Amino acid sequence: MSKHRRGRRKPRRSSRSPARSPSSEYRQAVRKADQVLSISDIEVRSDNWQQLALDWFAPDEPGRSEMARYIAAHECQLGVAWARELLRLEVLFQAEEHLQIIAHYDRALSRYPRCAFAEMWVADQVFRHASDFWRARQMYRHVADNLPGYAKPRYEMGFMSYLLGDFRGALGWFNQAADLVADDDVELGARILYNRGLVRFYLDGNRKPAIADIREALRRKQDYPQAKEALRGLRGKVRWVPW
Amino acid sequence: MVDTYPKVTTKSYWIPTAATGERVFWMSLEFSLNRRPEDSQPSIAEVAWSSGSADEGLLILPPIVPAKIRREAQRLLQPWPHGRYTDAYQRSGGILNVFTPQWGEQQDEVWAEMLAGWKSETFAGADARQEALLALEQQWNTTSHPFFAGLTPAQVVVGGGLQETELAEEFLQQLTRMYDGHAFESEGEALIKALMLLRGWQCQPRENGQMVLDIIIAERNELLARRARALNHECSDAKRGN
Question: In this model, does residue A82 exceed pLDDT 70?
């Protein structure tokens, strides 16, 4: 599964609502995004906006089908302006402009129907870069509810629960994610199993299931130094904790 | 004689975000309110509990303590409510929670679920309904909460003790050794790294085989027991007309 991201929320006024005057960093980031689109000869028109949105934002399956479903369901509310904002969002993702991704999502895309697929990727920025765990949690929960076949939001909920010190809650989410992750999603599959192994060990100190999970993580992704270290530690005699 | 004067000491740690830095500071204040000057003497919190007056407890503080800290200490020493200890949302939660981003009732999935259950129930009358709500609030106070890293709200509100102070110091030093001077891509990344280190550290068994979580819970339970004794003392005094 590739990287990206999200849609709308109910129109509202809150501390997170779009500000009336965008910050200069944000304006600059959007200008740069427009330059990138211009250099790429991208012109969003009424006859190509859907295609461009899919090609740029969700080029791979299963995201592409998910995005196509979203566009079909909300076609009359979306259109050229929406696609332009989505493409800008994509460019900000490619440029790893983490905080501007959130700003753009809030300022430009929150007026459109909420898109769980896009939200899944924006939530990562909210969680991992803006450190707004609680907002990210609400977003991931929405994504998990609306994308029942996706492992990623469940993995992120598990990882967040782990960070909060809720190991039992984390295990529940990791179990769900492990059931859903595709065999060919090497990166996510390995992460789910590695983290589930750790949490299992933290919960009761039982090495066997933890070793099994971490071995499986390494089977999926051989170049995984943390997993290798964890396996060495778990096989040792002393109770080992990775810190 | 000079040795008995209050001393000001400064400590320096690497802390992932400004917000968590502030929480570390409040955590230290919470710890200090439970510290007994000597074993036979009560802590500031115990004086406040047994006298029913935060001001009474604050008399123990040396004059050097700034007004801002006194005000905060006074807030921490307020009598606990009969219902839900919602003040837990405002406390640091000790070393296990000090890096958890601030949350409150809006994010409290546990309370929301309990409340939804209560709302869906049918009661014989308004009194029974109210009684059930009060019982539910007590239940929340004493139920291990996933967002408090397994502590109960009561254990959060009572604050940490001497052992947790030492454990916190150990962890903060470890954190500083590990990350001081490192460049992070974002504040979020720094926070996540700190939390990962914390969760690993808390599962590291101590020399006696105990886990950090167990030590902290046992100590906070002891502090709750101290509080109960202090409150009983107040009742006994009241009965004697003191």
Answer: yes
Nearest to B195 among A98, A134, A163 (CB): A163
Work out the pLDDT band at B9, boundaries 50, 70, 90.
confident
User: B200, A241: Cβ pair inside 8 Å?
Assistant: yes
- Which residues in chain B have Cβ-Cβ distances shorter than 8 Å to A101? none
Q: Quick one: tokens of B63? A: 């004059």
Distance (Å, whole) CA B103 – CA B182: 28
Beta carbons within 10 angstroms of residue A15's beta carbon: 5
Q: What is the mean pLDDT of residues B46-65?
A: 90
Q: Residue A21's pLDDT is what?
A: 59
User: Would you say B100 and B93 are in contact if contact means Cβ atoms under 8 Å apart?
Assistant: yes
Domain residue spans of chain A:
24-130, 152-235
Q: Does the CA dihedral B61-B63-B67-B68 come out positive or negative?
A: negative
Please tell me the predicted confidence (pLDDT) of residue A18: 46
State the average pLDDT over residues A175-192.
96
- Is some CB atom of chain A closer than 8 A to the CB atom of B17? yes
Range A152-235 has CATH code 1.25.40.10: yes
pLDDT at B217: 96
Q: Closest-CA residue in chain B for A200? A: B203
Domain ranges of chain B: 2-7+14-239
Q: What is the pLDDT averaged over residues B81-108? A: 96
**Is A165's CB within 8 Å of B191's CB?**
no
Q: What is the pLDDT of residue B237?
A: 42
How is chain A classified by DSSP, letter by letter?
-------------STTSPPSS--HHHHHHHHHHHHHHHHTT----TTTHHHHHHHHH--STTHHHHHHHHHHHHTTT-SHHHHHHHHHHHHHHHTT-HHHHHHHIIIIITTSPP-HHHHHHHHHHHHHTS--HHHHHHHHHHHHHH-TT-SHHHHHHHHHHHHHT-HHHHHHHHHHHHHH--TT-HHHHHHHHHHHHHHHHHHH--HHHHHHHHHHHHHH-S--HHHHHHHHHHHSSS-----
Encode pLDDT of B155-165 as tens digits: 999 999 999 99
A202/B contact by beta carbon, under 8 A? yes
